Amino acid sequence: MPLHIEPLGDQALLITCHDEPAAWQLANQSRTLAPPWLIDVVAAYASVALYFDPLQIDWSSAAAQVRAWPSSSTALPVGRLWTVPCCYDLGLDTQAVCAHLKLTPRELAEFHQATLFTVYAIGFSPGFPYLGYLPASLQGMPRMAQPRTRVEPGSIGLAGTQSGIYPLPTPGGWHLIGRTPCRIVDVEADDYPLRVGDQVRFAAIDRDAFAAQLGRRLG
């Protein structure tokens, strides 16, 4: 059962759960039950946002229905495993990261590749995956004091306990340790392959492989 339900604007419920698996369970249950007033379900970390049609139901009635849902025993959906190529030679902030974490560039790449990440949220810009969690050896990088005005698409960064992939050219303040040649979103085609609950593993490639694969779709 949700720990806490509060309004998210005037057309959504924000539900805080015990942990990430409980949130994914609730999101899956919401999609399965699919009440007629439900428009969209967005899970992020230990929270779930349920967007509703205000012409069919009001906030308090929607919250009451959610509280009355039975506990779900449905198995959690198994997310897809993605292998994302990464050219660590293109990390613009590798030296700064290594100095802060007291690692060599080789150790940085090895620790990053050895981690099986989970997509815990999508946000910031369309398709940006928040990947958790970094191993202890890679944790603790603060965001940049002066964010870049433009980060190239495919750039892979670190901040705090997370890694992430910039899908589009945007400003950004994460320290960049590499870049993937893959397009992880295609806005024109409405293609956003990475979803909450998916898993991501990075695989090192060199500059030649990066150039040869540049622009290909993920998958």
Structural notes for this entry:
This protein is an alpha+beta fold and 219 residues long. The protein has two domains: 65 residues, Gyrase A, domain 2, CATH 3.30.1360.40; 133 residues, Cyclophilin. The protein is built from five helices and 13 strands. The longest helix has 14 residues.
Mean pLDDT: 93
CATH-level-2 architecture of the largest domain? Beta Barrel
- Rg, nearest Å: 19 Å
Tell me the number of strands. Answer: 13
Cα shape = elongated
Distance between the termini: 36 Å
Beta-strand residue percentage: 25-35%
**How many structural units, i.e. domains?**
2
Multimerization state: single chain
- CATH topology call of the largest domain: Cyclophilin
Quick structural summary:
The chain has helices spanning 20-33, 59-68, 94-101, 105-114, 207-213; strands spanning 4-7, 12-16, 38-44, 47-52, 81-86, 117-122, 129-132, 148-151, 155-159, 162-165, 170-172, 175-179, 199-204. The chain is of the alpha+beta class and 219 residues long.
List the helices and strands and how they pair.
Blueprint: E1 4-7, E2 12-16, H1 20-33, E3 38-44, E4 47-52, H2 59-68, E5 81-86, H3 94-101, H4 105-114, E6 117-122, E7 129-132, E8 148-151, E9 155-159, E10 162-165, E11 170-172, E12 175-179, E13 199-204, H5 207-213
List its salient traits.
219 residues, alpha+beta, Gyrase A, domain 2, Cyclophilin, 2 domains, four-stranded antiparallel beta sheet, 22% helix, 30% strand
